[in-house]
Amino acid sequence: MGFHESVRTVLSKKYATFSGRASRSEYWWLQLLYWALLAAYVPLLVTVSEATGGADGLSQIADVLMTILILFVLATLSPQTALHARRFQDCGISSSRYGTLVLLCVIPGFAILAGPAVIVICLLPGTEGPNKYGPDSLIAEPKAEVFT
Fold first, then answer.
1. Are 85 and 98 in contact (CB under 8 A)?
2. Segment 63-93, tens digit of pLDDT
3. Are the beta carbons of 30 and 9 closer than 8 angstroms?
4. What is the pLDDT of residue 33?
5. Which parts of the chain have pLDDT scores under 50?
6. I need a surface site. Which of 113, 125, 140, 144 has the fewest CB within 10 A?
7. Does a structural domain hold residue 61?
């Protein structure tokens, strides 16, 4: 699955779909886009915030930029969570394990273990063939025959 297909699948076709499976390419292409956007936007926000310093008119620009960032994170929360759940299921791991790891991240000291655990699981290849969460995400589903 290529970049455009991965992004289109996650952000439109499977925006909040927690069932099924997600291939590594589907997962990592979206992560690349997500973190690249944040890596470009956050320095802009910091620069504008520091430059405005407290000037009322200019600090409103920083407030608008911060609001845009918050809306972006909220808008991508559901597809990111669903994508992680499907990626875990592609590896044959229940998506409730992902939920457990996320909850562990709020406990001081556990985030340093739970965060890398999520990354390692998402690096693993999916189970070959169908598993209890659905068909193999790397095998294209057969299309209906036009002429039979």
1. yes
2. 899 999 999 999 999 999 999 999 999 999 9
3. no
4. 95
5. none
6. 144
7. no
Number of domains the chain is built from: 1
The answer to whether position 7 is within a domain reads yes
Q: Hey, what are 40's tokens? A: 């470009």
Question: DSSP string spanning the chain?
Answer: --HHHHHHIIIIITTT--SS---HHHHHHHHHHHHHHHHHHHHHHHHHHHHHTT-HHHHHHHHHHHHHHHHHHHHHHHHHHHHHHHHHHHTT--HHHHHHHHHHHTSTTTHHHHHHHHHHHHHSPPPSS-BTTBS-TTSPPPPPPS--
* Cα 68 off chain centre by: 18
CA distance 67 to 104: 28
CA distance 127 to 93: 10
pLDDT of 115 reads 86
Tell me, yes or no, whether 143 lies in a domain.
no
pTM recorded for the entire structure = 0.83
| In-domain check, residue 139 | no
pLDDT for the residue 19 = 92
Q: Which domain covers residue 21, as residue numbers?
A: 3-43+78-123
Sign of the CA dihedral with 72 first, then 78, 83, and 84 last: positive
